[in-house]
Amino acid sequence: MKKKIYSIASQRLRKIRLKLNIYDIDVQYVKGSQMLIADAISRASSKADASTLEQSLDRVVHTVNVGDSFLIEITDATGKDAALSQLIGYYNNSWPTNIDKVTDLVKPYWKLRNNIVVENNIVYLDHRIIVPLSLKKTVMEKVHSSHFGITKTLGRAKSLFFWLNMKSDIIDTISKCHLCEKYSAKKVKESLLLDETTPSLPYHKVGCDFLNYGNENYLVVADYYTKWFDLIKVNSMTAATVIKILKTLFATHGIPSILRADNMPFNSIEFKNFAKMYKFSVVTSSPLYPKSNGFVEKYVGIAKNMLKKCKDENLDIHLVILEYRNSPVIGSPYSPSQLLFSRFTKSILPIHNKLLAPKVVTDFVKYQEKRNIINKTNYDKTARHYNYTLEKGQDVVYRRENVWLPAKIVGLHNSPRSYLIQDDQGSMLRRNSSQLKPSVTPKIPSDVSVRSPKRCVIPVEDGHSELPMDSEQMMEPVPSANCEGRPKRVINPPAYLKDYETDLSHEGEDVSCS
Protein backbone atom coordinates (compact mmCIF):
# COMPACT_ATOMS: atom_id res chain seq x y z
CA MET A 1 0.00 0.00 0.00
CA LYS A 2 2.98 2.31 0.45
CA LYS A 3 4.16 1.90 -3.15
CA LYS A 4 3.35 4.44 -5.83
CA ILE A 5 0.83 3.19 -8.38
CA TYR A 6 3.20 3.62 -11.32
CA SER A 7 5.88 1.51 -9.58
CA ILE A 8 3.60 -1.56 -9.29
CA ALA A 9 4.43 -3.88 -12.18
CA SER A 10 1.47 -6.27 -11.96
CA GLN A 11 -1.69 -4.96 -13.57
CA ARG A 12 -3.91 -6.94 -11.18
CA LEU A 13 -2.22 -5.45 -8.11
CA ARG A 14 -2.32 -2.01 -9.72
CA LYS A 15 -6.10 -2.21 -10.11
CA ILE A 16 -6.52 -3.34 -6.51
CA ARG A 17 -4.37 -0.42 -5.39
CA LEU A 18 -6.56 2.00 -7.36
CA LYS A 19 -9.77 0.62 -5.88
CA LEU A 20 -8.39 0.99 -2.35
CA ASN A 21 -6.93 4.43 -2.95
CA ILE A 22 -9.98 6.16 -1.40
CA TYR A 23 -9.34 4.45 1.94
CA ASP A 24 -6.75 5.15 4.62
CA ILE A 25 -5.65 1.61 5.33
CA ASP A 26 -3.08 0.27 7.75
CA VAL A 27 -1.99 -3.10 6.38
CA GLN A 28 -0.92 -5.80 8.82
CA TYR A 29 0.08 -9.36 8.06
CA VAL A 30 -2.30 -12.10 9.29
CA LYS A 31 -2.07 -15.82 8.59
CA GLY A 32 -4.62 -17.14 6.12
CA SER A 33 -6.00 -19.65 8.64
CA GLN A 34 -6.96 -16.78 10.96
CA MET A 35 -8.74 -14.62 8.30
CA LEU A 36 -12.16 -16.22 8.76
CA ILE A 37 -14.36 -13.27 7.77
CA ALA A 38 -12.33 -12.38 4.67
CA ASP A 39 -12.37 -16.01 3.59
CA ALA A 40 -16.15 -16.17 3.91
CA ILE A 41 -16.72 -12.92 2.00
CA SER A 42 -14.45 -14.03 -0.83
CA ARG A 43 -16.67 -17.09 -1.31
CA ALA A 44 -19.78 -14.90 -1.62
CA SER A 45 -18.59 -12.17 -3.95
CA SER A 46 -20.91 -9.57 -5.43
CA LYS A 47 -22.55 -10.37 -8.78
CA ALA A 48 -22.84 -6.70 -9.78
CA ASP A 49 -21.62 -5.63 -13.23
CA ALA A 50 -18.21 -4.01 -12.80
CA SER A 51 -17.46 -3.50 -16.52
CA THR A 52 -17.77 0.29 -16.24
CA LEU A 53 -15.24 0.41 -13.42
CA GLU A 54 -12.81 -1.89 -15.24
CA GLN A 55 -12.92 0.24 -18.39
CA SER A 56 -12.13 3.39 -16.44
CA LEU A 57 -9.27 1.65 -14.70
CA ASP A 58 -7.82 0.47 -18.02
CA ARG A 59 -7.52 4.07 -19.16
CA VAL A 60 -5.66 5.00 -16.00
CA VAL A 61 -3.25 2.05 -16.13
CA HIS A 62 -1.66 2.86 -19.53
CA THR A 63 -1.86 6.19 -21.27
CA VAL A 64 0.52 6.56 -24.23
CA ASN A 65 1.57 10.09 -25.15
CA VAL A 66 2.24 9.64 -28.86
CA GLY A 67 0.85 10.94 -32.11
CA ASP A 68 -2.23 9.21 -33.46
CA SER A 69 -0.50 8.17 -36.69
CA PHE A 70 2.40 6.50 -34.93
CA LEU A 71 0.04 4.91 -32.39
CA ILE A 72 -1.97 3.41 -35.24
CA GLU A 73 1.27 2.26 -36.86
CA ILE A 74 2.33 0.50 -33.64
CA THR A 75 -1.09 -1.13 -33.27
CA ASP A 76 -1.13 -2.40 -36.86
CA ALA A 77 2.45 -3.65 -36.69
CA THR A 78 1.77 -5.44 -33.40
CA GLY A 79 -1.17 -7.27 -34.93
CA LYS A 80 0.96 -8.38 -37.88
CA ASP A 81 3.93 -9.41 -35.74
CA ALA A 82 3.95 -13.19 -35.26
CA ALA A 83 5.57 -13.20 -31.82
CA LEU A 84 3.50 -10.36 -30.37
CA SER A 85 0.29 -11.82 -31.76
CA GLN A 86 0.99 -15.02 -29.89
CA LEU A 87 1.85 -13.00 -26.78
CA ILE A 88 -1.56 -11.34 -26.95
CA GLY A 89 -3.20 -14.75 -27.27
CA TYR A 90 -1.41 -16.11 -24.22
CA TYR A 91 -2.24 -12.96 -22.26
CA ASN A 92 -5.95 -13.15 -23.06
CA ASN A 93 -6.28 -16.92 -22.64
CA SER A 94 -3.79 -17.38 -19.74
CA TRP A 95 -0.23 -18.61 -20.04
CA PRO A 96 0.59 -22.33 -20.13
CA THR A 97 1.91 -23.87 -16.94
CA ASN A 98 5.12 -25.09 -18.59
CA ILE A 99 7.57 -23.37 -20.91
CA ASP A 100 7.66 -26.46 -23.12
CA LYS A 101 4.06 -25.72 -24.14
CA VAL A 102 5.00 -22.24 -25.39
CA THR A 103 5.94 -21.66 -29.03
CA ASP A 104 9.57 -20.92 -29.90
CA LEU A 105 8.76 -17.31 -30.81
CA VAL A 106 7.39 -16.60 -27.34
CA LYS A 107 9.91 -18.57 -25.26
CA PRO A 108 12.27 -15.56 -24.87
CA TYR A 109 9.39 -13.74 -23.12
CA TRP A 110 8.61 -16.59 -20.69
CA LYS A 111 10.48 -15.10 -17.71
CA LEU A 112 8.85 -11.72 -18.37
CA ARG A 113 5.28 -13.03 -18.64
CA ASN A 114 4.14 -11.71 -15.24
CA ASN A 115 5.06 -8.15 -16.24
CA ILE A 116 3.55 -8.24 -19.74
CA VAL A 117 0.33 -6.29 -20.25
CA VAL A 118 -1.84 -5.91 -23.36
CA GLU A 119 -4.06 -2.88 -23.78
CA ASN A 120 -5.64 -1.54 -26.95
CA ASN A 121 -3.73 -4.14 -28.97
CA ILE A 122 -0.36 -2.76 -27.76
CA VAL A 123 1.92 -5.02 -25.72
CA TYR A 124 3.71 -3.50 -22.73
CA LEU A 125 6.48 -4.73 -20.47
CA ASP A 126 5.59 -2.83 -17.32
CA HIS A 127 5.30 0.69 -18.77
CA ARG A 128 7.49 0.12 -21.82
CA ILE A 129 6.13 -0.63 -25.27
CA ILE A 130 7.29 -3.91 -26.75
CA VAL A 131 8.27 -2.84 -30.27
CA PRO A 132 7.17 -5.01 -33.21
CA LEU A 133 9.96 -6.36 -35.38
CA SER A 134 8.90 -4.31 -38.40
CA LEU A 135 9.13 -1.02 -36.44
CA LYS A 136 12.41 -1.73 -34.69
CA LYS A 137 14.49 0.22 -37.22
CA THR A 138 12.06 3.15 -37.15
CA VAL A 139 12.08 3.31 -33.36
CA MET A 140 15.89 3.15 -33.24
CA GLU A 141 16.10 6.05 -35.69
CA LYS A 142 13.70 8.10 -33.57
CA VAL A 143 15.61 7.32 -30.36
CA HIS A 144 18.93 8.16 -32.02
CA SER A 145 17.63 11.30 -33.72
CA SER A 146 19.62 13.46 -31.26
CA HIS A 147 22.81 11.52 -32.09
CA PHE A 148 23.89 10.91 -28.51
CA GLY A 149 26.41 8.22 -27.60
CA ILE A 150 25.74 4.55 -26.93
CA THR A 151 25.22 4.84 -23.17
CA LYS A 152 22.78 7.74 -23.29
CA THR A 153 20.87 6.41 -26.31
CA LEU A 154 20.57 2.96 -24.77
CA GLY A 155 19.36 4.42 -21.47
CA ARG A 156 16.73 6.49 -23.24
CA ALA A 157 15.53 3.51 -25.29
CA LYS A 158 15.30 1.24 -22.23
CA SER A 159 13.12 3.76 -20.43
CA LEU A 160 10.51 3.79 -23.22
CA PHE A 161 10.71 0.60 -25.25
CA PHE A 162 11.63 -3.04 -25.12
CA TRP A 163 12.66 -5.58 -27.71
CA LEU A 164 14.98 -8.55 -27.72
CA ASN A 165 18.71 -7.83 -28.24
CA MET A 166 18.12 -4.11 -27.76
CA LYS A 167 21.68 -3.35 -26.63
CA SER A 168 23.44 -5.00 -29.56
CA ASP A 169 21.00 -3.44 -32.05
CA ILE A 170 21.58 0.08 -30.73
CA ILE A 171 25.36 -0.38 -30.63
CA ASP A 172 25.29 -1.58 -34.23
CA THR A 173 23.08 1.35 -35.30
CA ILE A 174 25.29 3.99 -33.68
CA SER A 175 28.48 2.40 -35.03
CA LYS A 176 27.05 2.78 -38.55
CA CYS A 177 25.95 6.39 -38.03
CA HIS A 178 28.12 8.59 -40.26
CA LEU A 179 27.44 11.77 -38.26
CA CYS A 180 28.36 10.15 -34.93
CA GLU A 181 31.48 8.63 -36.48
CA LYS A 182 32.57 11.99 -37.89
CA TYR A 183 32.36 13.81 -34.54
CA SER A 184 33.37 10.97 -32.24
CA ALA A 185 36.17 11.49 -29.72
CA LYS A 186 39.77 10.85 -30.64
CA LYS A 187 41.27 7.46 -29.92
CA VAL A 188 42.80 6.58 -26.58
CA LYS A 189 46.57 6.39 -26.88
CA GLU A 190 48.01 3.07 -27.99
CA SER A 191 50.57 1.08 -26.05
CA LEU A 192 54.15 2.32 -26.19
CA LEU A 193 56.11 0.91 -29.10
CA LEU A 194 59.75 0.42 -28.16
CA ASP A 195 62.52 0.21 -30.74
CA GLU A 196 63.19 -3.31 -31.92
CA THR A 197 66.84 -2.95 -30.92
CA THR A 198 68.11 -0.67 -28.18
CA PRO A 199 71.11 1.39 -29.41
CA SER A 200 74.30 0.07 -27.83
CA LEU A 201 76.79 2.46 -29.42
CA PRO A 202 77.23 6.22 -29.17
CA TYR A 203 75.88 8.21 -32.11
CA HIS A 204 74.48 5.11 -33.78
CA LYS A 205 70.98 6.64 -33.86
CA VAL A 206 70.22 10.36 -33.56
CA GLY A 207 67.11 12.49 -33.75
CA CYS A 208 66.65 16.00 -35.17
CA ASP A 209 63.99 18.64 -34.78
CA PHE A 210 63.55 22.40 -34.85
CA LEU A 211 62.88 24.63 -31.86
CA ASN A 212 61.42 28.12 -31.98
CA TYR A 213 61.85 30.48 -29.05
CA GLY A 214 61.93 34.27 -28.92
CA ASN A 215 61.46 34.64 -32.68
CA GLU A 216 64.62 32.60 -33.22
CA ASN A 217 65.00 29.09 -34.60
CA TYR A 218 67.29 26.38 -33.32
CA LEU A 219 68.20 22.88 -34.47
CA VAL A 220 68.20 20.20 -31.77
CA VAL A 221 70.24 17.03 -32.41
CA ALA A 222 70.09 14.31 -29.73
CA ASP A 223 71.76 10.90 -29.46
CA TYR A 224 69.48 8.01 -28.48
CA TYR A 225 72.24 6.13 -26.61
CA THR A 226 74.24 8.76 -24.71
CA LYS A 227 71.43 11.34 -24.37
CA TRP A 228 73.92 13.96 -25.56
CA PHE A 229 72.24 16.82 -27.41
CA ASP A 230 73.38 19.86 -29.36
CA LEU A 231 71.49 23.13 -29.66
CA ILE A 232 72.46 25.24 -32.70
CA LYS A 233 70.87 28.52 -33.73
CA VAL A 234 69.87 28.63 -37.41
CA ASN A 235 68.95 31.50 -39.72
CA SER A 236 66.71 29.32 -41.88
CA MET A 237 65.19 25.86 -41.75
CA THR A 238 66.14 24.77 -45.24
CA ALA A 239 67.84 21.52 -46.15
CA ALA A 240 71.07 23.35 -47.04
CA THR A 241 71.30 24.88 -43.57
CA VAL A 242 70.61 21.57 -41.83
CA ILE A 243 73.13 19.72 -43.98
CA LYS A 244 75.85 22.28 -43.20
CA ILE A 245 75.27 21.86 -39.44
CA LEU A 246 75.06 18.07 -39.56
CA LYS A 247 78.30 17.83 -41.51
CA THR A 248 80.07 19.64 -38.69
CA LEU A 249 78.52 17.41 -36.03
CA PHE A 250 79.24 14.25 -38.00
CA ALA A 251 82.87 15.33 -38.43
CA THR A 252 83.09 15.55 -34.61
CA HIS A 253 81.08 12.53 -33.45
CA GLY A 254 80.98 10.35 -36.55
CA ILE A 255 78.21 9.54 -39.00
CA PRO A 256 75.17 7.83 -37.45
CA SER A 257 73.50 4.81 -39.00
CA ILE A 258 69.97 6.14 -38.48
CA LEU A 259 68.64 9.69 -38.35
CA ARG A 260 65.06 10.15 -37.19
CA ALA A 261 63.26 13.44 -37.89
CA ASP A 262 60.12 15.11 -39.14
CA ASN A 263 59.31 15.16 -42.84
CA MET A 264 60.52 18.61 -43.79
CA PRO A 265 63.18 19.44 -44.77
CA PHE A 266 64.53 15.96 -44.00
CA ASN A 267 62.35 14.43 -46.73
CA SER A 268 63.52 16.80 -49.47
CA ILE A 269 65.52 15.61 -52.47
CA GLU A 270 68.58 17.56 -51.36
CA PHE A 271 68.61 15.92 -47.93
CA LYS A 272 68.00 12.46 -49.42
CA ASN A 273 71.03 12.95 -51.64
CA PHE A 274 73.03 13.99 -48.57
CA ALA A 275 71.92 10.82 -46.74
CA LYS A 276 72.87 8.73 -49.76
CA MET A 277 76.31 10.30 -49.95
CA TYR A 278 76.99 9.93 -46.20
CA LYS A 279 75.40 6.47 -46.15
CA PHE A 280 72.87 6.76 -43.32
CA SER A 281 69.15 6.07 -43.37
CA VAL A 282 66.46 8.65 -42.67
CA VAL A 283 63.32 7.61 -40.77
CA THR A 284 60.59 10.25 -40.77
CA SER A 285 57.75 10.54 -38.28
CA SER A 286 54.08 10.33 -39.17
CA PRO A 287 52.57 13.71 -40.13
CA LEU A 288 50.57 15.44 -37.41
CA TYR A 289 51.80 12.89 -34.86
CA PRO A 290 54.87 14.27 -32.99
CA LYS A 291 54.82 11.33 -30.54
CA SER A 292 56.40 9.15 -33.21
CA ASN A 293 59.52 11.31 -32.80
CA GLY A 294 59.02 11.60 -29.07
CA PHE A 295 62.67 11.21 -28.03
CA VAL A 296 63.89 14.35 -29.74
CA GLU A 297 60.63 16.17 -28.92
CA LYS A 298 61.54 15.63 -25.28
CA TYR A 299 64.89 17.33 -25.81
CA VAL A 300 63.21 20.19 -27.64
CA GLY A 301 61.23 20.77 -24.45
CA ILE A 302 64.36 20.50 -22.30
CA ALA A 303 66.27 22.97 -24.48
CA LYS A 304 63.36 25.44 -24.57
CA ASN A 305 63.13 25.31 -20.78
CA MET A 306 66.86 26.08 -20.58
CA LEU A 307 66.46 29.07 -22.89
CA LYS A 308 63.62 30.46 -20.77
CA LYS A 309 65.63 30.23 -17.55
CA CYS A 310 68.72 31.70 -19.17
CA LYS A 311 66.70 34.65 -20.43
CA ASP A 312 65.15 35.35 -17.01
CA GLU A 313 68.43 35.06 -15.06
CA ASN A 314 70.78 36.27 -17.83
CA LEU A 315 72.69 32.98 -17.80
CA ASP A 316 75.09 31.60 -20.39
CA ILE A 317 73.21 28.90 -22.30
CA HIS A 318 76.46 27.15 -23.24
CA LEU A 319 77.47 26.68 -19.59
CA VAL A 320 73.99 25.39 -18.80
CA ILE A 321 74.22 22.81 -21.60
CA LEU A 322 77.71 21.85 -20.40
CA GLU A 323 76.40 21.10 -16.91
CA TYR A 324 73.55 19.08 -18.37
CA ARG A 325 75.99 16.95 -20.33
CA ASN A 326 77.97 16.27 -17.14
CA SER A 327 74.87 15.32 -15.10
CA PRO A 328 73.93 11.61 -14.77
CA VAL A 329 71.28 10.24 -17.08
CA ILE A 330 68.14 9.37 -15.12
CA GLY A 331 68.24 5.74 -13.99
CA SER A 332 72.03 5.37 -14.32
CA PRO A 333 75.23 6.72 -12.69
CA TYR A 334 76.68 7.89 -16.03
CA SER A 335 76.45 11.27 -17.72
CA PRO A 336 76.20 11.93 -21.48
CA SER A 337 79.84 13.08 -21.47
CA GLN A 338 80.99 9.81 -19.90
CA LEU A 339 78.98 7.79 -22.38
CA LEU A 340 80.16 9.72 -25.43
CA PHE A 341 83.77 10.64 -24.44
CA SER A 342 84.35 8.11 -21.62
CA ARG A 343 85.14 11.00 -19.27
CA PHE A 344 83.71 14.11 -17.64
CA THR A 345 84.25 17.38 -19.46
CA LYS A 346 85.80 20.24 -17.52
CA SER A 347 83.41 23.00 -16.48
CA ILE A 348 83.57 26.00 -14.13
CA LEU A 349 82.81 23.71 -11.19
CA PRO A 350 85.86 22.31 -9.35
CA ILE A 351 86.73 18.72 -10.34
CA HIS A 352 89.57 16.32 -9.50
CA ASN A 353 91.93 15.42 -12.30
CA LYS A 354 91.24 11.71 -11.82
CA LEU A 355 87.61 12.30 -12.80
CA LEU A 356 88.81 13.85 -16.04
CA ALA A 357 90.74 10.70 -16.93
CA PRO A 358 89.04 8.50 -19.55
CA LYS A 359 87.17 5.43 -18.33
CA VAL A 360 85.15 3.35 -20.80
CA VAL A 361 81.56 2.61 -19.81
CA THR A 362 80.50 -0.93 -20.73
CA ASP A 363 77.36 -1.63 -18.68
CA PHE A 364 75.10 1.27 -19.60
CA VAL A 365 72.87 -0.87 -21.84
CA LYS A 366 71.41 -2.74 -18.85
CA TYR A 367 70.42 0.57 -17.22
CA GLN A 368 68.86 1.73 -20.47
CA GLU A 369 66.86 -1.48 -21.00
CA LYS A 370 65.62 -1.41 -17.41
CA ARG A 371 64.57 2.22 -17.81
CA ASN A 372 62.75 1.42 -21.07
CA ILE A 373 60.75 -1.33 -19.37
CA ILE A 374 59.76 1.01 -16.53
CA ASN A 375 58.71 3.73 -18.99
CA LYS A 376 56.65 1.31 -21.06
CA THR A 377 54.95 -0.15 -17.97
CA ASN A 378 53.96 3.29 -16.70
CA TYR A 379 52.86 4.50 -20.13
CA ASP A 380 50.75 1.43 -20.87
CA LYS A 381 48.76 1.83 -17.65
CA THR A 382 46.59 4.43 -19.38
CA ALA A 383 46.97 3.07 -22.92
CA ARG A 384 44.61 0.80 -24.82
CA HIS A 385 45.21 -2.22 -26.98
CA TYR A 386 43.00 -2.28 -30.06
CA ASN A 387 42.00 -5.73 -31.28
CA TYR A 388 41.38 -4.77 -34.90
CA THR A 389 44.02 -4.71 -37.65
CA LEU A 390 44.24 -2.29 -40.55
CA GLU A 391 44.78 -3.85 -43.97
CA LYS A 392 45.14 -2.70 -47.55
CA GLY A 393 41.82 -1.79 -49.17
CA GLN A 394 40.04 -1.40 -45.83
CA ASP A 395 37.59 1.48 -45.32
CA VAL A 396 38.73 3.73 -42.47
CA VAL A 397 38.28 7.23 -41.11
CA TYR A 398 41.23 9.49 -40.32
CA ARG A 399 41.48 12.33 -37.80
CA ARG A 400 41.74 15.82 -39.25
CA GLU A 401 40.88 19.12 -37.53
CA ASN A 402 39.03 17.37 -34.68
CA VAL A 403 36.73 15.36 -36.97
CA TRP A 404 36.93 11.93 -38.57
CA LEU A 405 36.87 11.91 -42.37
CA PRO A 406 36.44 8.90 -44.70
CA ALA A 407 39.43 7.28 -46.36
CA LYS A 408 40.72 3.96 -47.66
CA ILE A 409 44.01 2.25 -46.84
CA VAL A 410 46.23 2.00 -49.91
CA GLY A 411 49.24 0.32 -48.31
CA LEU A 412 51.66 0.11 -45.41
CA HIS A 413 54.42 2.64 -44.90
CA ASN A 414 57.94 1.52 -44.01
CA SER A 415 57.64 3.14 -40.57
CA PRO A 416 55.95 1.32 -37.67
CA ARG A 417 52.20 1.94 -37.30
CA SER A 418 52.23 4.18 -40.37
CA TYR A 419 49.87 3.78 -43.34
CA LEU A 420 49.26 5.29 -46.76
CA ILE A 421 45.63 6.26 -47.21
CA GLN A 422 43.47 7.76 -49.94
CA ASP A 423 40.93 10.39 -48.90
CA ASP A 424 37.60 11.14 -50.56
CA GLN A 425 39.28 13.66 -52.88
CA GLY A 426 41.71 11.08 -54.24
CA SER A 427 44.72 12.53 -52.39
CA MET A 428 47.34 10.19 -50.96
CA LEU A 429 48.21 10.85 -47.32
CA ARG A 430 50.38 9.22 -44.68
CA ARG A 431 48.89 8.75 -41.24
CA ASN A 432 49.74 6.99 -37.98
CA SER A 433 47.47 4.24 -36.66
CA SER A 434 46.49 6.52 -33.77
CA GLN A 435 44.82 8.76 -36.36
CA LEU A 436 42.97 5.89 -38.07
CA LYS A 437 40.16 3.56 -37.15
CA PRO A 438 37.98 1.12 -39.10
CA SER A 439 34.78 2.50 -40.59
CA VAL A 440 31.51 0.72 -41.33
CA THR A 441 30.20 3.69 -43.31
CA PRO A 442 32.40 3.59 -46.44
CA LYS A 443 32.33 6.78 -48.50
CA ILE A 444 35.24 6.19 -50.88
CA PRO A 445 34.10 4.73 -54.24
CA SER A 446 36.38 2.16 -55.76
CA ASP A 447 36.70 4.06 -59.06
CA VAL A 448 38.17 7.32 -57.65
CA SER A 449 41.26 8.44 -59.55
CA VAL A 450 44.31 8.10 -57.35
CA ARG A 451 47.67 9.72 -57.57
CA SER A 452 49.77 6.59 -57.21
CA PRO A 453 52.75 6.87 -54.87
CA LYS A 454 56.23 6.02 -56.08
CA ARG A 455 58.85 4.38 -53.90
CA CYS A 456 62.35 5.79 -54.03
CA VAL A 457 64.84 3.09 -53.05
CA ILE A 458 68.42 4.21 -52.51
CA PRO A 459 71.03 1.43 -52.71
CA VAL A 460 73.51 1.57 -49.84
CA GLU A 461 76.92 0.03 -50.16
CA ASP A 462 79.14 -1.80 -47.67
CA GLY A 463 76.67 -4.54 -46.82
CA HIS A 464 73.81 -2.27 -45.76
CA SER A 465 70.32 -3.02 -46.98
CA GLU A 466 68.54 -0.83 -49.46
CA LEU A 467 67.22 2.38 -48.01
CA PRO A 468 63.46 2.89 -48.56
CA MET A 469 62.70 6.57 -48.52
CA ASP A 470 59.41 8.26 -47.74
CA SER A 471 57.76 8.53 -51.12
CA GLU A 472 54.18 9.59 -50.79
CA GLN A 473 55.28 13.11 -51.64
CA MET A 474 56.36 11.85 -55.09
CA MET A 475 52.96 11.82 -56.76
CA GLU A 476 51.75 12.16 -60.30
CA PRO A 477 48.19 13.37 -60.89
CA VAL A 478 46.00 10.98 -62.82
CA PRO A 479 44.12 12.80 -65.58
CA SER A 480 40.41 12.90 -65.00
CA ALA A 481 37.99 12.17 -67.84
CA ASN A 482 35.82 15.18 -67.13
CA CYS A 483 38.80 17.56 -67.35
CA GLU A 484 39.92 16.72 -70.88
CA GLY A 485 40.18 19.69 -73.23
CA ARG A 486 40.31 22.29 -70.45
CA PRO A 487 43.20 24.79 -70.69
CA LYS A 488 45.83 24.38 -68.01
CA ARG A 489 48.02 27.09 -66.55
CA VAL A 490 51.67 26.28 -65.94
CA ILE A 491 52.52 26.84 -62.28
CA ASN A 492 56.17 27.32 -61.31
CA PRO A 493 57.01 26.77 -57.64
CA PRO A 494 58.59 29.73 -55.80
CA ALA A 495 62.32 29.74 -55.26
CA TYR A 496 62.13 29.32 -51.48
CA LEU A 497 60.52 25.91 -52.01
CA LYS A 498 63.45 24.56 -54.02
CA ASP A 499 64.29 22.12 -51.19
CA TYR A 500 60.82 20.62 -51.19
CA GLU A 501 58.94 18.27 -53.45
CA THR A 502 55.74 20.07 -54.33
CA ASP A 503 52.63 19.35 -56.36
CA LEU A 504 50.96 22.71 -56.88
CA SER A 505 48.37 21.21 -59.21
CA HIS A 506 46.56 20.07 -56.06
CA GLU A 507 46.78 23.21 -54.02
CA GLY A 508 45.58 22.92 -50.45
CA GLU A 509 45.85 19.12 -50.29
CA ASP A 510 47.94 17.41 -47.65
CA VAL A 511 50.48 15.75 -49.95
CA SER A 512 53.98 17.07 -49.39
CA CYS A 513 54.09 16.31 -45.67
CA SER A 514 52.08 13.13 -45.58
Q: Count of DSSP helices?
A: 15
Task: Give the integer mean of the pLDDT values.
Answer: 81
Distance between the termini: 70 Å
The residue fraction in helices comes out at 25-40%
Fraction in beta strands: 15-25%
- The count of β-strands is 16
Strand order of the largest sheet: 7-6-5-8-9
* Main sheet: strands, sense, barrel: 5 strands, mixed
Per the principal axes of the C-alpha atoms, what is the gross shape? elongated
> Radius of gyration, rounded?
37 Å
Secondary-structure class:
alpha+beta
Oligomeric state of this protein: single chain
pLDDT < 50 runs, ≥5 residues: 56-61, 452-485, 504-514
Describe it for me?
This protein has 514 residues and is of the alpha+beta class. The protein contains 15 helices and 16 strands. The protein has helices spanning 11-19, 36-42, 51-61, 68-80, 82-93, 136-143, 150-160, 166-175, 178-182, 239-253, 269-278, 294-313, 317-326, 336-341, 364-380, and strands at 116-119, 122-125, 128-130, 161-162, 205-213, 216-223, 229-234, 258-261, 281-284, 395-400, 403-412, 418-423, 428-432, 436-438, 456-458, 467-469. The strands form 4 sheets. It has a 5-stranded mixed sheet, sandwiched between helices. Strands 13-12-11-10-14 form a 5-stranded antiparallel sheet, with no helix packed on it. The protein has a 4-stranded mixed sheet with strand order 1-2-3-4. α7 crosses α8 (166-175). It is elongated and about 115 Å long. The two termini are 70 Å apart. Residues 56-61, 452-485 and 504-514 have low confidence and may be disordered.
